[in-house]
Amino acid sequence: LPVTIEREMGGATSVSKVQMQALDALVQEVSGASARLDTLESLAPALLLKVRSLEAQQAFDAGEVARATQIAQVIQRTRGSAGGAASDDEEWAPENELTVGLLHVIRNLAHDAEPQLEFTDVLGQVLWHNRASKALRDTRYRAVVEDLSWMDRGVQAWSGPDVSLGEMVSGVFYALTDRGDGRMKHTKWLRVVRLIECSPVLQPRTKRSDCDRLFYAQTHQRGGSSTGITCREFKRLLFELSDAMQVHPLTMFLAVGSHAE
Q: What integer best gives the mean pLDDT of the chain?
């Protein structure tokens, strides 16, 4: 992985705890910037309807989010706005009432999803989709947004606890760039695209125009340009391509990582 949470946060901080703290910062920014998003009823769908399931479908529809929101509001009224149960392990509980409610909504939706989604999976997708926000560009949270280790749980369930999708994808990157300068050029990126097209799920969704456009965007950032991308940028590119295809990022990373030697 490009940056581990432990390095950035200065210790062995759990993924879910740092994710929740980042979500809290995002909620405060979003709800403070717009009166239309300062209630749980409006905030929850705004942040959760882009989450994808492992079947490349929208994970939750508006009705499911609305029902989970009603349940969360009942829980809050029962337990108080401090939300002591917002975190299963009670490592950290936010003071912001909106964040408390949203965490309850996410837990309910993730648990009831078919197939069931990990809590950290939903949080990871929400943070990634809002990575351009000022709150998540803060150095305190940038690492957790780009740390994709939350996807590993989806693979470890059937492949074992030592499997890391990030390492598998890194292996493919370095195998394709072993004789270069550590940057993946466009011709090698097209080889990755052909690997992606081997997936029966991704092949019909793959558009070469998207692949070229997103690669160009990665090589022309902040007014500069380069002839290739780093491993960190490669992973970011795969995630952005999964967004364009409207599939769960796990599907994209598996399609590429499965070719690691």
A: 84
Q: Does residue 65 contact residue 49 with C-beta atoms inside 8 Å?
A: yes
247's enclosing H/E stretch is none
* Contact of 48 with 57, CB cutoff 8 Å: no
Residue 63 vs residue 9, higher pLDDT: 63
Mean pLDDT of 166-195: 91
Cα-based torsion angle of the residue sequence 109, 110, 115, 120 in order, rounded to the nearest 10 degrees: 160
CA-CA distance, 200 to 97, in Å (whole number)?
43
Indicate the pTM of the whole model. Answer: 0.80
Express each pLDDT in 10-22 by its tens digit: 333 466 788 999 9
Instruction: Name all contacts of 11-17 with Cβ < 8 Å and 24+ positions apart.
Output: 14/89, 14/91, 15/120, 15/144, 15/147, 15/149, 15/150, 16/87, 16/91, 16/119, 16/120, 16/123, 17/87, 17/91, 17/92
Token pair in block for residue 206: 């793959």
